[in-house]
Write a structure and sequence with these properties.
The chain contains eleven helices and twelve strands. It has helices spanning about 1-25, 50-65, 80-90, 110-115, 145-160, 180-190, 210-220, 235-245, 265-270, 285-295, 315-320, and strands at about 40-45, 70-75, 95-100, 120-125, 140, 165-170, 195-205, 230, 255-260, 275-280, 305, 310-315. It binds alpha-L-arabinofuranose. Alpha-L-arabinofuranose (AHR) binds near residues 179, 233, 260 and 261.
Length: about 325
């Protein structure tokens, strides 16, 4: 009984805080769906890549356009910072929390705290591995396993006539993150069907250009005969290109390169022939995120999983779309 009463009190307080935010937001924009009254706490992974910068811009611009008051924090690739940010959003009684989890594990406690405070949570970009899906309303983002498979399928086709072993090095994303785990798994599943494909080295480059360069330099020293680089994002691939050129080799020819993301710098390198194939991962999640947040707060049903639509690019396709690439 006592529990039911306190639940009602919390619900009442939450409703009051929604109303309070509405009156405090100054009525800018006046957009549809009651956007004026929504305050969203958003915990971003960091600023590790061109993709992340574009994603942050998309979320910030879309919040503005939708009349959503955004409280934004950058976790600098640290889970502890994200947990602190989420706790602070709970304390501030925001209407809804959205975040892109830096790693997959270790979220249950803080997500339970948000649930107990009756603040809905939306996962964007990256997933958590908790079996308790009641801890969040929906997960909006790419299918990273599929991205890894697309990278593998290009490779299988490219080397369909090869009979010699194909030596591959892999630059993984941040250890424990969903895109690193899934892109590795999808790729391995596809190339694993043929024994000629050998992953001779695989290490994290933390999704950054600097680390991509550093790790590729080490790969080149310990593996004289690399045929292919598979980098889990463009930035690591771009760093690796510097290392390959520094070692006197020609990227895209001596070593074929596959990356993921399709940000402008990556697409430029693809058009220039330094990268051979890019699997797209779209960072433009902001508009859909705001839409989902409004629906959740209105009590509307939302799908538990919203998968981003994306494509792949060859060198020729990159040349055609480069001038209109937004990010
Ligand atoms: O979670 C998406 C990944 O994170 C992007 O592919 C990568 O560039 C970013 O850092």
């Amino acid at each position: 009984m006592l529990k039911r009463i306190s639940a009602l009190v919390v619900a009442g307080l939450t409703a009051m805080s929604v109303a309070a935010c509405g009156s405090g937001s100054g009525g800018s924009g006046g957009t549809s769906g009651g956007g004026d009254s929504i305050t969203m706490g958003f915990s971003q992974v960091g600023a590790e890549s061109g993709w992340r910068t574009a994603n942050t811009k998309s979320v910030q611009d879309s919040a503005k356009n939708a009349g959503v008051t955004l409280k934004f924090s950058d976790a600098q690739q640290k889970q502890e910072n994200q947990i602190k940010a989420i706790r602070s959003y709970i304390q501030q009684k925001v209407d809804i929390i959205a975040f892109s989890p830096v790693v997959e594990s270790g979220w249950e406690t803080v997500l339970k705290e948000a649930k107990d405070a009756k603040i809905p949570v939306i996962l964007t970009d990256r997933a958590v591995d908790s079996p308790d899906t009641s801890l969040y309303k929906t997960f909006l983002g790419s299918d990273f396993v599929e991205e890894g498979k697309k990278a593998g399928q290009w490779l299988v086709e490219e080397y369909k006539d090869a009979t010699d072993p194909v030596n591959i090095v892999e630059l993984q994303g941040t250890t424990g993150s969903a895109p690193a785990n899934d892109r590795k798994a999808g790729f391995a599943e596809v190339i694993g069907a043929e024994s000629k494909f050998k992953v001779v080295a695989s290490q994290t480059g933390d999704f950054t250009r600097a680390k991509g360069k550093e790790v590729m330099e080490a790969f080149l020293k310990s593996n004289p005969d690399i045929d292919v680089l598979y980098a889990h994002n463009d930035d690591m691939g771009l760093g690796a290109i510097e290392a390959i050129e520094g070692a006197g080799k020609v990227p895209g020819k001596d070593i074929k390169i596959i990356t993921v993301d399709a940000v402008k710098d990556g697409m430029q390198a693809l058009a220039d022939g330094k990268i051979n194939f890019i699997v797209e991962c779209s960072p433009l999640l902001g508009p859909q995120l705001m839409d989902l947040a409004k629906k959740v707060l209105k009590g509307e049903q939302v799908p538990p999983r919203v998968v981003t639509e994306e494509t792949t690019f060859t060198q020729e396709q990159a040349k055609q779309v480069l001038s209109t690439r937004q990010y």
